[in-house]
Amino acid sequence: MTTMVTAPERTGTHKSPLTPRKPRNRKSVVLTLVTGIALIYSLIPLVWLLINSTKTQDGLASSFGLWFDDGHFALWDNIRETLTYNDGIFVRWLGNTLFYVIVGAGGATFLAVLAGYGLAKFDFPGKKGVFAIVIGAVAVPGTALAVPTFLMFSKMGLTNTPWAVIIPSLITPFGLYLMWTFTEQAIPTEIIEAARVDGAGEFRIFFRLAVPLLAPGIVTVLLFSMVATWNNYFLPLIMLKDPDWYPLTVGLNAWNAQAQTAGGDVVFNLVITGSMLTILPLLAAFLLLQRYWQSGLAAGSVKE
Amino acid sequence: MTTFTRRRLLGLAALATATTLTLAACGGGDDDSSSGTSGTTVSDADVTAALQKGGNLTVWAWEPTLKQVVANFQKTYPNVKINLVNAGTGNDQYTALQNAFAAGSGIPDVAQIEYYALPQFALGKSITDLNQMGASSLKADFSPGPWASVQSGSGTFGLPMDSGPMAMFYNKDVFDKYKITVPTTWTEFLDAARKLHAADPKAYIANDTGDAGFVTSLIWQAGGKPYQVDGTNVTINLNDAGSQEFVKVWQALISEKLLAPISSWSDQWYQGLGNGSIATLNTGAWMPANFTSGAPAGSGKWRVAALPQWTAGGTASAENGGSSLAIPEKSSNKALAYGFLKYANDGDGVQTRVDNGAFPATVKQLDSAAFLNTEFKYFGGQKANEIFAASSKNVTPGWSYLPFQVYANSIFNDSVGKAYVSSTPLADGLKAWQDQSAAYGKEQGFTVK
Amino acid sequence: MADIAVPRRRSWTGWRFVGPFMAVFALVFLAPIVYSIYLSLFKNRLIGGNSFVGLDNYQQALTDPNFWSSVGRVSIFLVVQVPIMLFIALLVALAIDSGRLYGKSFFRISIFLPYAVPAVVATLMWGFIYGTQFGLVGNINDAFNITLPDPLSPSLILTSIGNIVTWEFVGYNMLIFYSALRTIPTTLYESAEIDGAGELRIIRSIKLPAIRGALVIATIFSIIGSFQLFNEPSILQNVAPNAITTYFTPNLYAYSLSFSGQQYNYSATVAIVMGVITMVIAYVVQLRGTKES
Fold first, then answer.
1. Are residue B133 and residue B152 in the same domain, yes or no?
2. In a domain, A149, yes or no
3. Which of A4, A225, B359, C1 could connect to C187 by a Cys-Cys bridge, CB 3.0–4.6 Å?
4. Same domain for C70 and C116
5. What residue range is the signal peptide (chain B) (predicted)?
6. Are the C-beta atoms of C138 and C198 separated by less than 8 Å?
7. Which of B267, B269, B354 to mutate to test binding with chain A, by most A CBs within 10 Å of its CB?
8. Are C39 and B27 a contacting pair at CB < 8 A?
């Protein structure tokens, strides 16, 4: 690997003189169109969501799902009503969700990166057992564990507190494995050895050397755990009874359930608009994080 | 079976729990609550004192009109602070309750429980027998259907909050358009279904994808008594005369594809109610509020009529839905909780709830002129409460649900549901439901016949 | 996988990195499982209370037709849906990584987005799309005067669920593959191009081997995901109550037993048995996946 450093300058020219460093980047219309099928498949539901968030409850029931309700454009009204319905509880739920995501997903990513690195770059007693134990535990269906977990947490006095939501979301077994394989791939053991020879401590090597190299992997794990925490429904539903601690998912479901209640206020329009608003922060996070998806070693500052 | 025997059984259960293990008591939670409190009596004076003294109450309920009741209650009794929590609708809340009972903490002081689910909690002794507080004296205040629904064994386990005497809601525009007369019997209903669907293949007399509560209500109306409960002895027979009546008509509706395959409470359902493709809805008297907010497009088009009859000229009715407020055995302030129950379900709270669109279970409101004369804009100015009130007086007596109806209803679509989507006869579906319910009952230690 | 890393020396240092994860893991995963195993040895009834029954629950599970029909259903699902989903995800990841798409970041984010849609909206949305009355299927039927098969009928429901899962997770898996592709040092490609290797050749000899680890992990977690199928069927249960039984998948079965039936003990048993089955299969895949390297 270390012998290829000077390659790029020499190779580019015979394919595309204008972009010497990235000879492979010739755009293809055909490939774009073919991949476009997957794109449309993915986007239809979002289009549905966008269109329907412009409708009133009446319009939702009386107009075609994939087109606008003639003459009624209620998006701004819906947004206003979503934010103010039930004394603005939506805003409170949004704040809760942000809190759970920052602490939960942030913590989960940190633990996963740390442990993935440890598994990839160290040999220690019990290492082989870790894989078996984690896979084995993840293989047990989670819904059946909900009641035992509830009873345990209840004994520890954690139910109906934010901790009951945060602590379980600190674990992402999938993130652990992802970081494990990424670390093996992206960080040559030689550079760690070299740093050790220079006298750097293990955690200094980890934070200064490994973390920058692992950026694409870390971002991926962070994004996954953010979405997972953001959409976490089942656990908060069981653990929380106080609507003041609800995350958005549980709150929106409660609104949705009003339509199934005798005498309930039917607010599908708010559920839909609320869901659309829920996706926006995730979208923003994605856009902010995506610049870290550059090739690890090539983008890093490491001298090979 | 007498209370004594049941209590003895439960005592044994508690003993078994205590000796064999510590943690697993969490598994069921219904067995360790029989200790201590039984025999405690709370007098009216105690309740009044508790209301004056005040304190905190946690109330789990999803009924929307309670919000205003709580506000008014706190104004009347300024020392009481009520924390009204929507812990989920129906089954979600029962799950939360069971979990809280099992954990022994986080238990509310008052919980909303639907009639069909009440026997299960009563049997588990996880809720209080309100006769200890003199609830039996309130009998005359409530209409007989709901009152019977809160009785279990010799106890009263909740105060009725609302009721759902059944009626037929129908879309008059659709009926007029196809010159269909409003059916008064289920046979006429079947004919109307045929006529309507032939005239407009996109219109159906009703939607139905199989709903346990609806089926049991119609069997109830037909005079069937498929569930007989005597303590822990349970008889299940979904092939009695009443059930057979129901099967005859409904089998024809299903086989001839006269029912819209739309599940109740879905957004499509509200759409169908609004746009005329679902022409009738046979359900409880609590429905008007949902019509108004969920299907505004149907306003002015719908009317209310008495539920079609199994025998021409009859007046029989049944209850569909409705719920009570109950007090968990582990509530820390039962006297205060009972004070709230009486206020909300038998006192000033009732009128507040009626004013906000709820359907009462109390005789006083059901008989009041103001109530009966209310004109419903959604129903073209019709005085619909007259029909509902009449229905509530004609509810067929003697019905009872299983002490494990929550579970039985949850597996309804596994068995009976097949009849709605395949060639399985409805009667076979009911038989399978009966067998599976019985098997569960036996599992749980009941004697099932 | 565990042995690829060059071990420096065997020491406890690694635990300083793995320890925090494992500590929380023990609390939120291992402890409830141990508790479940304990619960699975008892039987609690409404009448008669709690009693120790040894392995009776396991015996019951092994001969429970509902349980095995649910296992069969998710097995079919696994064999058909997982390969399709991973294949599409891989193709899209390679297409985006090739740098030959117009608007590549738009593709990247759009295809990932379904994963971010909350379940409550998914219910409303798929209810609309699959609806034969007022839904998209109904509209297509009306427009072309045809009768499409009902996607919510018992015979098609598994396919319809497969479609939802694919829709949701193509982007998820795509991102895993894509980010793994991004960790490949660009110098590798450049040297390949000196040798005159074409795109397909580069994919075969550089990209695929380099993301093997990610492929194995994605496969294992897709297997686990299939065996634990729960959200999508429970979402569609609202609109197709008769096609999706309470024992449609093992996880749904465990849920109904526990939440509707208060059969915590038997539910725990079903979960443990299912966990063992899943673990064995995942382990075999993991062994095979790493052996070939």
1. yes
2. yes
3. A4
4. yes
5. 1-24
6. no
7. B267
8. yes
The CATH number of residue B148's host domain is 3.40.190.10
For residue B275, what are its two tokens?
């746009």
If one counts the domains in chain B, the total is 2
At A119-159, the pLDDT tens digits run 999 988 888 888 788 888 888 887 778 888 988 898 899 98
Distance CA(A49)–CA(A71), nearest Å, equals 18
| Mean pLDDT value across chain B | 88
| B119 reaches C (C-beta below 8 A) | no
Distance from CA of A208 to the nearest CA of C (A): 15
Instruction: For residues C188-213, give the mean pLDDT.
Output: 83
Helix (H, G, I), strand (E, B) or coil at B270: helix
Closest chain C residue to the Cα of A302, Cα to Cα:
C185
Q: How far is A23 from chain B (nearest CA, A)?
A: 53
Total domain count, chain A: 1
Q: Considering only CB atoms, which chain B residues are within 8 Å of C40?
A: none
Predicted pLDDT of residue B40? 58
Q: What percent of chain B has pLDDT over 90?
A: 76
Rounded Cα gap, residues C247 and C236, in angstroms: 14
CA–CA–CA angle C47, C248, A271 (5° rounding): 95
Q: How many whole angstroms separate alpha carbon B33 and alpha carbon B130?
A: 15
In a domain, A18, yes or no: no
From residue B4, alpha-carbon distances to A104, B120, B123 in Å are: 52, 18, 13
Here the tokens at position C194 are: 């000196």
Neighbours of chain C (3+ CB pairs under 8 A): A, B
Is residue B101 included in any domain, yes or no?
Answer: yes
Tally of CB atoms within 10 A around A68:
15
Determine, yes or no, domain membership for A8: no
CATH of the domain at A201: 1.10.3720.10
Q: Give the residue among A42, B171, B270, B173 at the shortest CA–CA distance from C134.
A: B270
> Closest Cα to residue C151, out of C232, C226, C227?
C232
- Using a CB-CB distance cutoff of 8 angstroms, which residues of chain B are in contact with residue A58? 274, 296-297
Q: What is the pLDDT of residues B123-158, one digit of tens each?
A: 888 999 999 999 999 999 999 889 999 998 889 999
Give 3-state DSSP helix, strand, coil % of chain C, rounded to 5. 70, 5, 25
Tokens 């008064």 -> residue: B184
Q: Work out the number of other CB atoms within 10 angstroms of the CB of residue C6.
A: 13
How close are the terminal C-alpha atoms of chain A, in Å?
Answer: 8
Task: Give helix C104-112 / helix A268-289 axis angle, nearest 10°.
Answer: 140
Parallel, antiparallel, or unpaired for β B166-171 and B280-284?
Answer: antiparallel
